[in-house]
Amino acid sequence: MNARHITIKAYIGSNNITKELETEKIISILDKNHEGFTLDYPVVGYWRGEAEKTALLYLGDTEDKVLATLRELKVALKQEAIAYQVEAELKII
Predict the structure, then answer these.
(1) Distance (Å, rounded) from C-alpha 13 to C-alpha 42?
(2) Could you read off the pLDDT of 79-90 as tens digits, one per residue?
(3) How much is the pTM?
(4) Cα-based angle 50, 75, 52 (whole degrees, multiple of 5)
């Protein structure tokens, strides 16, 4: 188990089948797995030349928990991929 803490920004697109941005499902998964997060939506993303409603997720937690949540979101939202990048460490005062 990797207890290293990371902060990420992830790009979560619309469901590949329904073409809808399933924010309630996204929030439900995030809420059960993490104490806090920020979700910015809708923004417009492009994947393989097609525009789609997209949510930007900002999340900090252990690397294992973050990656497990991204994998869960990918399956639940029927995504081909979810892109993410590791950000600078999140500080809380």
Answers:
(1) 10
(2) 989 999 999 987
(3) 0.90
(4) 20
